[in-house]
Amino acid sequence: MDTNTRNYLTVTAGYWAFTVTDGAIRMLVVLYFHLLGYSPFEVAMLFLFYEVFGIVTNLVGGWLGARIGLNLTMHIGMGLQVIALVMLTVPDAWLTVAYVMVAQAMSGIAKDLNKMSAKATVKTLVGDGGESRLFKYVAVLTGSKNALKGAGFFIGAALLELIGFRGALAVLAGMLAVVLIVTAILLPSGVGRMASKPKFTQVFSNTPAINWLSAARFFLFGARDVWFVVGLPVFLYSVLGWSFTGVGSFMAAWVIGYGMVQAVAPRLLHLGRSRQAARRHPGGRTARRWALLLAIVPAGMAFALHQGWPPGEVLIGGLMLFGVFFAINSAVHSYLILAYSDFEKVSMSVGFYYMANAGGRLAGTVLSGLVYQTQGIEGCLWWSSAFVLAAFVLSLRLPEVCETKPAAVPA
């Protein structure tokens, strides 16, 4: 096994371990604070700082990674997650909304530092394998992350039932601390660090393709969360009469399935294509095509619900199709940000891009509650379709990869 492959596997394993804790802590907080008598609004507020600080972290994190190295920012993220987990092990009397919001803010910072570092590191480790290898590596890393986040939902709920809230937190914190130590020993220092110290103003990209892609990413992830965060679970529970377990299981299964599709996106994009066409890399044309296909799904679901079709069948079938198309869109975007980025500035480009991603999640989260309350699940789906169409329009300015200046990857 060559050094780059070993380092890639080490980064991926660390990212996997972190992602399990990220999914588990969300499920633990939702379930336990519901049991403590927190209202749905108070539970939702616990995650507000998680999303807000994700925007700030992605903006600053890329610049920080370019100055001190991506492996160090990744391990800082792991350390902050361990602290966030330990913070929640205090007695119930301490678990006020403000206190838990601070712990969740720390977890949000940790998550985005870890994600930015792991994905940017892939660019530095691909070596001379070319764009096809880069697309494959990014797809596997991103897809497996989403599948494991769904698994984290199950793990969090199972640990809560088996060993209680604080026991679950202690197990997760201990596991992640061990992974932190192991990856710190195995990974080389200085990965992704720029030779010259970049100024903070350089985090704002001056590459048009990256700016257009980041804007499209904002609307793409807003399109998911506008129905996923509040509208769907509330509808399944209050209108369709599903149990909490049923709602959680469906959402976890959706995330796992979406992650699995994302991991095999390179193969799916090559199905039915000639050998010459299959050698082409995804570019702006690919992003536009799949955005249009995705926009049709929520619009079709909203129309079917308006016509009185059975809501359970419409939502389950439609969201399965949405998950497939969304996964391919996300995988293409995740590849393009690395393909468009210069080798030396990759951490700042990825940080800027995921700042837009976090902004889209925040907008989708807020709109999910507001739109569902005023327009119902149909309204959430129409907004989702509109957001995807906005992503399509912004993607009109995305070039093909061959039209961009290739990143200089050192031997």
Structure report:
Keywords: Membrane, Transmembrane, Transmembrane helix. InterPro entries: MFS (IPR011701), MFS_ArsJ (IPR047769), MFS_trans_sf (IPR036259). It comes from Thiocapsa marina 5811. This is Major facilitator superfamily MFS_1. One of its GO terms (molecular function) is transmembrane transporter activity. The protein is mainly alpha-helical. The chain has one domain: MFS general substrate transporter like domains (Growth Hormone, Chain: A). It is 79% helix and 0% strand. It is built from 14 helices and no strands. Helix 1 runs antiparallel to helix 5, helix 3 crosses helix 14 and helix 12 runs antiparallel to helix 13. The longest helix is centred in the middle third of the chain and has 57 residues. It starts with a helix and ends in a 16-residue tail after the last helix. The C terminus is likely disordered.
Summarize the structure.
The chain is an all-alpha fold and 411 residues long. The chain contains 14 helices and no strands.
Describe the SSE topology:
Elements (H helix, E strand, L loop, with lengths): L2 H33 L4 H6 L2 H21 L1 H18 L9 H29 L4 H57 L21 H21 L2 H8 L5 H20 L1 H6 L4 H4 L5 H23 L4 H30 L5 H50 L16
Protein name: Major facilitator superfamily MFS_1
GO molecular function, one term: transmembrane transporter activity
Organism: Thiocapsa marina 5811
